[in-house]
Amino acid sequence: MTQNPSEAIRDELLAQALPDVVFDGWTWDVVEQAALKAGYDKTMARAVFPGGLSEFVSHLSDWADRQMLEKLAHVDISAMRVRDRIHLGVMTRLDVLAPWREPVRRAMTYWTVPTRSLLAARSVWRSADRIWIWAGDTATDYNHYTKRGLLSGVISATTLAWLNDDNSDPEKVSAFLDRRLDHVLKLGRALGRFKKTA
Predict the structure, then answer these.
(1) How far apart are CA 51 and CA 10, in angstroms?
(2) Does residue 158 have a pLDDT over 90?
(3) Average pLDDT, stretch 7-27?
């Protein structure tokens, strides 16, 4: 996939910043230092992230989504249940983020500030939307929003479970994800019946 120049620079700054985020957290100084390390003037940080630090933190999620989709691009999903496709998507995304657990942990803390909740929700929704599209979802009615809303919750809960798993046991996280998917499938069916009744 060909990147536009702005996205390529944004990815470059993120790659330079992530090792520093491990120690210094998500700060604008880290972003400007990343620009300098990448060979740009520090003003490049604001040029490609005009929304400031929140836009930069959100870019981690966008980058992880795109890396996930790249890994999934050659997977034959024709014989897979939709549930298994979703499971694979979420686990692949966590695999992409595995080298950067501490920046992810710090990002989750960053998003807990109430004034940042809307952008945080949009970032998770975007991830859910991309997984559903990859999985073959074409719904345009209320199911489109229900599926993405439910999966957003699954992604958030599973990411927290992954961060809290000190042993980094993928099977344990996978089992947690299975339980969450079982729950939302039941909830989704219940919502569907309610909509029909209404």
Answers:
(1) 12
(2) yes
(3) 98
- Extract the tokens encoding 187: 């909830």
Q: Which of 2, 129, 120, 126 is nearest to 53 (CA)?
A: 120
In terms of pTM, does the model score above 0.85? yes
Residues 128 and 170 in one domain: yes
Q: Cα separation of 177 and 159, whole Å?
A: 9
Q: What's the CA gap between 159 and 29, in Å, rounded?
A: 27
Token pair in block for residue 20: 């520093």
Q: Determine the Cα–Cα distance for residues 152 and 159; give it in Å rounded to an integer.
A: 11
C-alpha span between 6 and 3 (Å, rounded): 8
Specify whether 144 is located in the same domain as 107.
yes
Do 77 and 168 belong together in one domain? yes
Q: What is the per-residue pLDDT across 111-133, written as a single tens digit (0 to 9) for each? A: 999 999 999 999 999 999 999 99
Q: Is residue 55 part of a domain?
A: no
Q: What is the pLDDT of residue 188?
A: 56
State how far the Cα of 198 lies from the Cα of 196, in Å rounded to an integer: 5
Q: Residue 56 falls within a domain, yes or no?
A: no
Instruction: Give the integer Cα–Cα distance in Å for 82 and 85.
Output: 5
Distance CA 73, CA 56 (A): 26
Structural domains in the chain (count): 2
Q: Indicate whether 178 and 83 sit together in one domain.
A: yes
Show the tokens assigned to 23.
């120690």
